[in-house]
Amino acid sequence: MGRIEIVSITGTTPISVYISDLYGNYETLLGTITGSTPPAQFFYPPSVFATAPGVLLKLVYGNGCEIIKQIQCRTGCWFDLIINTVDCEFNISVGPA
Fold first, then answer.
1. Given this model, what pLDDT does residue 1 score?
2. How many C-beta atoms surround the C-beta of residue 61 within 10 A?
3. What 8-state DSSP symbol labels residue 61?
4. Rounded distance, CA 28 to CA 8, Å?
5. Which class for 3: exposed (0-12), middle (13-18), buried (19 or more C-beta within 10 A)?
6. Half-sphere exposure of 54 (CA within 13 A, CB side)
7. Parallel, antiparallel or unpaired: strands 89-95 and 4-10
8. Residues in CB range of 28: below 8 A, 6 or more apart
9. Are strands 4-10 and 15-20 parallel, antiparallel or unpaired?
């Protein structure tokens, strides 16, 4: 997995972006989104994830909400995630690697 591109996201900033393997191991902070998106935000996972068939992407919002999504992809994937809960609303588009 060469790159994670978050092209659109709503929610309370800052938003911390984490990646881990499918079992939640090797969790690594990829970066923090501090402003509006778009424009797209690019994150480059550590080399331990280079050949991973999938990862867990965790987003932690400034208001304490968090979401974890499994992403399984080899090349050219696109995900559009919309999650609504009582306290949190997420609208996330993850672009191709």
1. 56
2. 21
3. -
4. 21
5. exposed
6. 9
7. antiparallel
8. 18, 19, 20, 45, 46
9. unpaired
66-72 and 4-10 strand pairing? unpaired
**For residue 41, what are its two tokens?**
């935000």
Between strands 28-33 and 41-43, the pairing is unpaired
> In this structure, what token pair is assigned to residue 25?
């191991």
- Give the 3-state secondary structure of residue 48: helix
Per-residue pLDDT of the chain (97 residues; tens, 9 = 90+): 567 778 777 778 898 999 998 899 999 999 998 987 778 788 888 888 877 778 888 989 888 888 888 887 655 555 555 544 445 555 565 555 4
Q: Tell me the two tokens of residue 33.
A: 């989104």
The residue assigned the tokens 């997995």 is 1
